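Study this fold:
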Amino acid sequence: MRSTLHNDLSRMDVFDVQDRNLLPRVLGALDDDQIALVRNVEPEHADRIVLNVATHLGLAESLEIQAALAGVLGHRHQVGKHFMTVNPRSEYQFIPPHSEGGTFTALKLAAFLCHANTTDGGATALMNVNPESEKWEGMRELLMRGKMRGGALSPRDAWLAKVRYKLMMPGGEPKADDVILKEYESDIRDLTLLDVLAPLERTYCEIQRRELHSLWDSVGRIECGIGREFEELLRKHDLLREPRVRSDIQLDYDAQSRVWDSGSSLTELFRSMVIVNLSPGDLLVQNNLTWAHGVSNWTPGSGVRDVAAAFA
């Protein structure tokens, strides 16, 4: 196994919700590229904390939009005002590390609120990006491109392309260094869609005041080695739960979608890791650009894990 990341709890600052200086301390943790963990948080208070942090960072509008989209797109459901459910998973499925979204949405802030966690697993693994690693240059991102037939799109169709497909047309045409995976028709007249593997671009991080690479979900889910390596990492830390007969239930980390191999390892992409078992009332706040999040699995029927997420 290539990964030698250790659980470094010094990268997590812990606060109580009653701390009178809570907001500046959470903001200070983010500025220092630390994870902020706030204890004893009620759901209503979690909404206020996340909104205050987002407002200070100029992300309040993005927070509102992401919460609203959860219900509109249908893959998540709103929980309270700013939080949403996490994606459902199958038995024995773990979630490899990723930062929420992609370069199009460029989400800057992530927060996770634990309502319940009585399983024999479900540990949250947080990994801090190594911005100096040259291995990021070999990473690819799964993106959608578009080709227009017969001239420019109408203003209405251009707006639909942006909302439905995250495409800015013109400007979203295939690039010379894209690897085209699939080409198919859209439901917008005169617009053809393409799934491509594009070189990963840097994103400007206002918190760190620099451009850096992030392991977006659109990057992590296509990288061949990350799912398998994360499985090995969980096993090393005694966090992996497996069926008695492995062939009966395949450990599910979406292996079929992994179509790119940069040859990079977790230790080359990340410089440290924090593993935490969230308890009810725990609120994690992190820089979504510099910290990727993953979750270990649990034995089916061993308990309930209920964690809500907010992004901006």
In short: The longest helix spans residues 43-56. The longest strand covers residues 109-117. The chain has seven helices and 16 strands.
